[in-house]
Every structure is written in structure tokens, then in C-alpha cells.
Amino acid sequence: MDNKRRAGPSILTFWIFLLQMLGNARRGAEGHGRLMDPPARNSMWRFGYPNPVNYNDNELFCGGYAVQWEQNGGRCGVCGDADNLAVPRPHEAGGMYGKGIISKHYSVGQEIEVEIELTANHLGTFVMKLCPNNNPRQEATQECFDRYPLYVSGTREDRFLIPLDTAKKEIFRYRVRLPPYVTCTQCVMQWTYYTGNMWGICPNGTEAVGCGRSETFRNCADISIVTSTGGIPPAFAGQLRRDNPFLLYYRDIFMPQNIYPLVISNDISEENDTDVYLQLIIREQVCLPSDAYRLLPGMLSWCETNCLRYPPNCPETLCHCPQVCEAIGELEGKEGADVYCMDLCIVYPPKCPKNKCRCY
């Protein structure tokens, strides 16, 4: 009898978790991903650009699965805002984050590297598109984006498929080709992420996760493309490029001195350079008071404001910024449980069940 009593809560917890996971699969878990290179409008504060801080810059998911598909009929703003929001939407031209700041400069036809950071990996595909807009006060249209798909280098595919063996939190870098005939003072690059965690009807009539209507994320970045005949300005060329005058650098005293990820002056050679400078990029998503201060009124807001800013003021004795989460207790080892914890905990404000998830 005692064994049955002890087994009861465990079985109940498992079924509650299973129902939660099935619910997430049907309606879509909250989104966690952003375009980092070129820096998107929602994320450019992480590189020092004078754009407002967006604490939930990894959640531009068309308002959420239910809003996108049940309320808005599958429609989404061109830069990830909910379609039903008043124009200008927050991340579109004229909105809070759509200031028209150019975050990267390229040359026509260039093969460029893009970087996407998924703070919770739900598999699926990425699609990159371009619109030569040339008017920071007017938002690009989806029809314009659809005319200029950016193909993955070496292919005729505009979709990048996320490998199944990637981690629950991952940074993806791959190359795409800019069109050989497009120049612009202001182009908008659109990143769209179609997740692979939805429950829906497959082409063969069966139902499974990964089929049907997908949860959708979108980000927009403002870039410029100059003609190759005139040559790209020296300030924006190669690894010495200066796209961002607001970016700060720091010296890593622990890095071996024969490694040179970045030199900060054209007249410094590797032979004479003894310092290694790295870019200061804010990658934390949520920062919380340390155990000694977690009950102090106002500390949650203090850690948010001071740690998630550029440059940060985040003493380790006061705040900590967890990067990954894993399931513990009754959920430990269950399929999908770690990503479930990432969805709940690595967001702001966090909704993290302490008896089910551990973050560090």
C-alpha cells in the first residue's frame, strides 16, 4: 500500500507534464530566437547601437501561435509583430525599434555570413530575404521581400534546415549570397524561422509533431549594399570593418597571445600586437538576483535594468544570468523536458518551476 502511495504523485506528475507538452505542441511553445548578424532592430542594443532595449527580443513570434493562426488567420507583421497591432508596429519603420539605423554594410553580390541565436531550439528552418527599400520612414512590403530570396551559399535553396542533433540552445552561422544586381542605401533583411515543434496533419494524412501550421518568428535588420565597381569603403571591409561605431572591445587576458580574432587598427600587425581584443556583445536573456539578495525588494528589476544594458553593470555578487536549464526531479530524463524548462525559465519575466527546472 505504501508503495502505491509513493508511486501516485510520480505518475500524476508525469501525466501533468505530458499534457503540458502536448498542449505546447498543439498551440506552440513561446518563441526563443533572434537574428544577431546582421544585428536586427530588436537585438541591436546588444551591440551598443542607440536603439531601445528589448528585453524579449527573442520572442518576435507574430504575437504567438494562437494570435497568429486563430486571431489573425495566419498573418504576421513583416518584422515579427502581431498583424493586428496598430501601424506603425513596434519593429517596423516609424515604430519604437524601427529607427532606420544601418547595422551592416555590404558590397553587391557578396557572400555574407549570417548568425542566428536560438535560446530555445525547436528545430525547423530559417529563411532569409531582402528588400531594397531605400526609405527608412516607410516599411518594406512582404511582396518586396518575396522577390529577393537569399540563397544558402552553394545551393539554390533559400531554406536552412536545422540539424536534428543540435543543442537545446545554439548559435547558427551560415552563408548566403546577396543578389548580383541590387544596391541600396537602405535594404531590409528579413529572417523568418518556421519551427518544427508543432502538432499537425502531415501530407500522408497522419498527425505528428513537425507537421501542419508552424509557429513563426521574424526579425528585420537594416543594411546597405554598395556597388562593387566603386569598392566597399575601407571602414567596412574585411575583419577591420567599422560598421558599428558604438561597439566596445575588451581585452581577454586569458587568451593565448598568438591568437588574433580581431585587430583594432590597420597599422597593427600580428607580429607587433601583444593584446587580444574581443567585441562586447550582450548575450544574456534574463538576469536574476543572487541567493543573498533574491528576497530584497526591487532587486529583480535592478538586475534586469543593470545587467541587460550596454555596457552592463552586473556584479556577480548581486546578480547571475543563467544560460541553460535542465529538468530535475520528476521530469529529469523525460523527452523534451529540458526545452520545456528553457521555454519557461530563459524569458523575462521568468516563470520557472524551481522543483522541476535547474538553470545555470
TrEMBL record:
InterPro entries: Cellulose/chitin-bd_N (IPR004302). It comes from Leptidea sinapis. The lineage of its organism: Eukaryota, Metazoa, Ecdysozoa, Arthropoda, Hexapoda. Residues 1-25 form the signal peptide. It comes from the Eukaryota. Keywords: Signal. The keyword Signal applies. Residues 32-223 form the Chitin-binding type-4 domain. This is Chitin-binding type-4 domain-containing protein. Pfam families: LPMO_10.
